């Protein structure tokens, strides 16, 4: 008789104090992390920060030096890889070249002794939109199609958690963008927990509902992509998720404003406001930052005035780069620092040129304050 599929219970994946040392070197440093059931979770960080090692411990391919991994009430820390309700999709798809696409997808079920697999295979091929290619062999497929076979092959085993290790790394940019949207669609459709490892901030922000930014074996900050981008907690996060225009400043007071009110900051002699809700540090020396697309440039002495509550005067445009939908300006400030501004190319404003004197305007609501004891770079 046909084996029935295990019930999709689903549970949070919880890492507690998870640690991996290699010959005294701490690759993963007492990680505490909860991945909510059904979420698309991205572990994002630079090369060598420990994200693959973390994933391999969850998969059971690497023995932790310390800490625990639990799925709901089950402690899976020391389970053999094949006994965990977890599957991994790697960057190298590792398909069987001599088997058809359908047979590749069926592999996991057949190995577990299932006889009737046709229905499940059809459903999976349909999910990844490869029904027409079922009888081909991997070499006759594009990279993106092979990636989708690898995904179907993992999903057919009905894991509770799907681990994805840089799964799109081998694809060109355009295909990678398509697959990002595709992966997100599939995750929503199957409702499984996806844990996606990447060093590409755009990829993490596009797909994940929760991003954990990892640096040197620990988590710097975790949350929804917009929150990490708008309210970075550390200079590392601020810089890893884009350009942050960090300027040395000092908190001089407070003022009423939206929500919790504003901090008043001295920035090289000019008073600037920052929403208290975006400030990690609320007194003394800080880094104050604003994202490039939140800043509006106006020509000095021109008729247009800036719409926002903050204004830094007397910058000079030092570089103009046309990037299609927007233009990137570098602006040298009187104190010597260069700030970056993105301006949408709507055609509504005349473009500024190198050497033009400009003022920078932006809102206190988009201003964040970080600990000045951290490096800005
Ligand atoms: P990448 O994006 O380059 O794969 P990563 O963030 O996934 O980087 P890991 O592969 O987890 O990083 O490696 C974390 C650190 O642990 C690195 O400094 C790496 O050199 C080290 N490391 C990984 N595996 C081993 C091993 N088997 N023996 C010794 N050191 C290792």
Task: Describe the protein's architecture and organization.
There is one protein chain. Helix 2 packs across helix 3. The protein is α+β, with helices and mostly antiparallel strands and 377 residues long. It has 2 domains: 226 residues, Rossmann fold, CATH 3.40.50; 132 residues, RNA polymerase II/Efflux pump adaptor protein, barrel-sandwich hybrid domain (OB fold (Dihydrolipoamide Acetyltransferase, E2P)). A 6-stranded mixed beta sheet has the order 6-7-8-3-9-10, with helices on both faces. A 5-stranded antiparallel beta sheet has the order 13-12-11-14-20, with no helix packed on it. Strands 15-19-16-17-18 form a 5-stranded antiparallel beta sheet, with no helix packed on it. The protein contains 8 helices and 20 strands. Adenosine-5'-triphosphate binds next to helix 1. GO terms for molecular function: ATP binding; ATP hydrolysis activity; transmembrane transporter activity. InterPro entries: AAA+_ATPase, ABC_SmlMolc_Importer, ABC_transporter-like_ATP-bd, ABC_transporter-like_CS, Mo/tungstate-bd_C_term_dom, P-loop_NTPase, Transp-assoc_OB_typ2.
């Amino acid at each position: 008789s046909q084996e029935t599929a295990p019930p999709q219970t689903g549970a949070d994946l919880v890492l507690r104090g998870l640690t991996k040392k290699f010959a005294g070197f701490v690759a993963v440093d007492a990680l505490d992390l909860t991945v909510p059931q059904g979420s698309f979770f991205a572990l994002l960080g630079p090369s060598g920060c420990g994200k693959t090692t973390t994933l391999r411990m969850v998969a059971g391919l690497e023995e932790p030096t310390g800490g625990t991994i639990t799925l709901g009430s089950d402690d899976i820390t020391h389970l053999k890889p094949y006994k965990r309700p977890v599957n991994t999709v790697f960057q190298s798809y590792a398909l069987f070249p001599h088997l058809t696409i359908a047979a590749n997808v069926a592999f996991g079920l057949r190995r577990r002794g299932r006889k009737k697999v046709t229905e499940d295979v059809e459903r999976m091929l349909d999910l990844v939109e490869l029904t027409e290619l079922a009888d081909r062999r991997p070499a006759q497929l594009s990279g993106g199609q092979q990636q989708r076979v690898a995904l179907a092959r993992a999903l057919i085993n009905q894991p509770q958690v799907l681990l994805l290790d840089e799964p799109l790394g081998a694809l060109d940019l355009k295909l990678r963008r398509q697959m990002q949207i595709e992966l997100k669609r599939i995750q929503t459709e199957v409702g499984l927990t996806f844990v996606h490892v990447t060093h590409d901030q755009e990829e993490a922000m596009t797909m994940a509902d929760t991003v954990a930014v990892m640096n040197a074996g620990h988590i710097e900050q975790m949350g929804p992509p917009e929150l990490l981008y708008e309210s970075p907690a550390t200079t590392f996060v601020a810089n890893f998720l884009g350009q942050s225009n960090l300027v040395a400043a000092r908190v001089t007071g407070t003022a009423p404003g939206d929500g919790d009110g504003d901090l008043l900051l001295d920035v090289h002699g000019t008073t600037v406001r920052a929403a208290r809700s975006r400030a990690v540090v609320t007194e003394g020396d800080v880094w104050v930052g604003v994202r490039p697309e939140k800043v509006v440039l106006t020509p000095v002495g021109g008729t247009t005035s800036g719409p926002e509550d903050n204004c830094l005067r007397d910058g000079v445009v030092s570089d103009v780069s046309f990037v299609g939908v927007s233009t990137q300006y570098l602006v040298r400030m009187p104190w010597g620092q260069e700030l970056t501004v993105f301006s949408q190319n709507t055609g509504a404003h005349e473009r500024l040129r190198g050497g033009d004197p400009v003022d920078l305007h932006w809102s206190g609501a988009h201003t964040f304050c970080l600990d000045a004891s951290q490096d800005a770079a």
